[in-house]
Amino acid sequence: MAEEVTHAEAGLAELSERVCACRACPRLVEWRESVAADPPRRYRGERYWARPVPGFGDPEARIAIVGLAPAAHGANRTGRMFTGDRSGDWLYAALHRAGLATQPTSRHRGDGLELRGAYVTAVVRCAPPANKPAPDERDRCLPYLARELALLERARVIVCLGQFAWDGALRALRELGHVARPKPRFAHGAEAAVGDYALVGSYHPSQQNTFTGKLTEPMFDAVFSRARELAA
After folding, report:
1. CA distance 23 to 157
2. pLDDT digits (tens, 9 = 90+) for 38-96
3. Bridge partners for 121 per DSSP
4. What pLDDT shows up at residue 2?
5. Does residue 192 lie within any of the structural domains?
6. Which of 31, 52, 175, 230 has the highest CB neighbour count under 10 A?
7. Is there a domain that residue 180 lies in?
8. What is the DSSP track for 51-74?
9. Half-sphere exposure of 204 (CA within 13 A, CB side)
10. Other CB atoms within 10 Å distance of the CB of residue 113
């Protein structure tokens, strides 16, 4: 007997189709496709995703993890958030240590990875030049994040990877009617109650932060340990 598809699963599947077909930001469309057409030597011969990247994870997740945007040769190549680059290596290893991922690595969409109790997404869905989306590009993408959070009916903890994700999550929650005043400030380990949600801040696991020691594995693990406590 086939398993019944839940409201969240159906809604997220429909949303993913809409995300993948989006061409609302001409600059980002041109960039993501030009990067795919002329990849670095180590990725020559690979077929790039080169489209907006949908969220990924457990439809019944209690924890949503929000990043900035796909990396040009990471998720823009693989089609899965935080997959195929060093930031993703850090994130999925930490999720595995926290019991939220079935394996510590993510190489491509069909590698068997499953998330349990967690869902990974981003504020912007296309890889931006220099990892810097423009404000209007962020704003055009925000309804996707707001819709995801609405569909993730059990998620009440949002882990924000970096200042951009923190700000984007606050904006998306505002669209859902959840407002915090005064606006909570981002910091690593910061927590904020926003309506029915708890935000937890973390430095982004970019090489700029992990190679310099600004973000260490114990620091990252503490964020997800706290997120699990709040979700429980």
Report:
1. 30
2. 999 999 999 999 999 999 999 999 999 999 999 999 999 999 999 999 999 999 999 99
3. 66
4. 46
5. yes
6. 52
7. yes
8. S----EE-TT-SEEEEES---TTT
9. 19
10. 21
Asked whether residue 2 is assigned to any structural domain, the reply reads no
Tell me, what amino acid is at 159? Answer: V
Task: Give the separation between CA 125 and CA 228, rounded to whole angstroms.
Answer: 26
Confidence of residue 5 (pLDDT cuts 50, 70, 90): confident
Question: What is the domain count for the chain?
Answer: 1
Burial class (CB in 10 A: 0-12, 13-18, 19+), 56: buried
pLDDT the model gives residue 109: 85
In a domain, 1, yes or no: no
Beta bridge partners of 119: 57, 64
Fill in the amino acid letter for 43.
Y
Quote the pLDDT of residue 78.
97
- The tokens describing 230, both together, are 């709040």
Q: What is the pLDDT of residue 152?
A: 97
Q: How far apart are CA 130 and CA 207, in angstroms?
A: 14
CATH number at residue 89: 3.40.470.10
199/43 Cα distance (integer angstroms): 36
